[in-house]
């Protein structure tokens, strides 16, 4: 989704490198199989919709490869925050909970946790069980209803340290962003990626 690199430009910190990968273009079932930028296929938008398991796992592997590349470039994985909007946020959450790389955090905007039934009940045992998560959602989102965000935050709090999960909602915001949300994102990034000498 374009526009996010512009939105981030307004909140960038000089000591942080921002990478905004673009989703590949593919046919999306929900979009009458018309091609559009998409990290994985979306079959439906209800909590019990069938999910593109293979596509989600492949997309997560692609993100893990980006993390590996940054680690090779000298950035420790615990100085990396994953983030995204809608499908990108969903992918960021799924990747953080399944990677073997210890990450600094996740920014999950207007999204959900994909393949949530594939995670065990109760706390995860992975390297990111203490990960910081900022989850944001508009209370008027017609595409990914606030209820999905609420269900996701409850699931996250059962899987990782609930004290590290922050859920913010924005009055009147639809499936989009707002200045207040961007300031919350900036505060989260600055807190979890402070400058290093």
Question: Uncertain spans, ≥5 residues at pLDDT below 50?
Answer: none
Largest sheet: 4 strands, parallel
Q: What general form does the structure show? A: globular
Oligomer: single chain
Number of strands: 6
H and E order: HEEHEHEEHEH
- What's the end-to-end separation, in Å? 34 Å
Provide the helix percentage: 25-40%
Structural class, by secondary structure, is alpha/beta
Strand order of the largest sheet: 3-4-5-6
Q: Give the averaged pLDDT, no decimals.
A: 93
Tell me the fraction of residues in β-strands, as a range: 15-25%
Account of the protein in words:
The protein is of the alpha/beta class. It is about 35% helix and about 15% strand. A four-stranded parallel sheet has the order 3-4-5-6, sandwiched between helices. Strands 1-2 form a two-stranded antiparallel ribbon. Helix 2 (about 55-70) crosses helix 3 (about 85-100). The radius of gyration is 16 Å and the shape is globular.
What's this model, at a glance?
The protein is of the alpha/beta class and 197 residues long.
Descriptive tags:
single chain; 197 residues; alpha/beta; 4-stranded parallel beta sheet; two-stranded antiparallel sheet; 6 strands; globular
């Amino acid at each position: 989704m374009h526009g996010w690199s512009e939105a981030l430009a307004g909140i960038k910190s000089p000591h942080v490198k921002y990478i905004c990968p673009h989703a590949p273009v593919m046919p999306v079932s929900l979009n009458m199989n018309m091609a559009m930028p998409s990290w994985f296929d979306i079959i439906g938008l209800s909590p019990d919709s069938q999910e593109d398991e293979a596509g989600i796992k492949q997309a997560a592997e692609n993100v893990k490869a980006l993390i590996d590349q940054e680690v090779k470039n000298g950035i420790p994985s615990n100085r990396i925050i994953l983030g995204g909007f809608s499908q990108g946020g969903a992918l960021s959450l799924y990747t953080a909970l399944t990677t073997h790389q210890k990450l600094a955090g996740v920014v999950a905007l207007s999204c959900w946790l994909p393949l949530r039934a594939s995670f065990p009940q109760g706390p995860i045992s992975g390297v990111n069980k203490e990960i910081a998560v900022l989850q944001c959602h508009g209370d008027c989102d017609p595409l990914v209803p606030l209820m999905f965000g609420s269900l996701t935050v409850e699931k996250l709090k059962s899987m990782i340290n609930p004290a590290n999960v922050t859920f913010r909602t924005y009055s009147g915001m639809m499936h989009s962003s707002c200045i207040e949300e961007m300031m919350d994102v900036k505060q989260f990034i600055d807190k979890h990626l402070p400058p290093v000498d």
